[in-house]
């Protein structure tokens, strides 16, 4: 039975394949009239009568028309398209469904084999570290291996911090490694002395930018390895971490950092003409979204001092609103 079904499918497919555009044009004429003679078809298609008769004979062979007589002038009638073409299409649909089931089964076999191979290779792509001590050691190790660049997304609270880690960072900067650090705004006000440390880092040659939020904690070294905590809970970020080596995952993490970096606000410690150091710091903090109260707390000055400096900056730039002040600061290059 299956073999006969296959033969039927083959016959229908062959009919569809052999029905070239010229025969299809002749069939369209045939279905539009009650019956058809070669001369009429020749006139409709602007071809010779012998060519028209040959086309009708081919259509008869393939089952698209039926010859009504055997007179010297033959007459043909079209077979219903649902029979002539529909049967073939339905047969092909049945064959396609069978083929799709076979493909699904083969895909299962392939996926199983791929999963077994991937399990063996996964250890070459991802290294898992567990426990605060191992995580801290891994973080220090990956920074110590940096040759050109370290890119980091940092949020509050900081997951890994120690004198040893800070020493590794200082050594990397000293040997010419470029640090690009994107800080979550909340970290600046949540950590005592963080603003001062960031300013020192910028003076030391690091690039620092500030964003309202960062999507995750992440460190990328030379765009060849990445370090990130496993757990989303910030209080448990040091419990486990991953080192990711060259892979599609690493490519995605690098792209994520680049997008976040491009959207963030640079931190500038250079005092532009017309500004003093306090004014420059107040302006930088305001531009990354801090309130006057937060600015005062971060800088260790009174709220009135911050508000007075803001008024002075607005007078210097002729700004009526803080939005205008931001526009003037950007135009004058105070934020870059």
- Give the CA-based shape: elongated
Strand segment tally: 10
Gyration radius, rounded: 38 Å
CATH T-level topology of the largest domain:
Endonuclease, Chain A
Q: Mean pLDDT score, rounded?
A: 79
Neighbour order of strands in the largest sheet: 3-9-8-7-4-5-6-10
Q: Main beta sheet, described? A: 8 strands, mixed
Please give the oligomerization state of what you see.
Answer: single chain
CATH class of the largest domain: Alpha Beta
> Which superfamily, in CATH terms, is the homologous superfamily of the largest domain?
Endonuclease Chain A
Order of helices and strands: HHHHEEHEHEHEHHEEEEHEHHHH
Strand content: 5-15%
Compute the number of helices: 14
- Low-confidence parts, pLDDT < 50 over ≥5 residues? 1-17
- How far apart the termini lie comes to 79 Å
Class computed from helices, strands and strand pairing? alpha+beta
- Percent of residues in helical segments? 55-70%
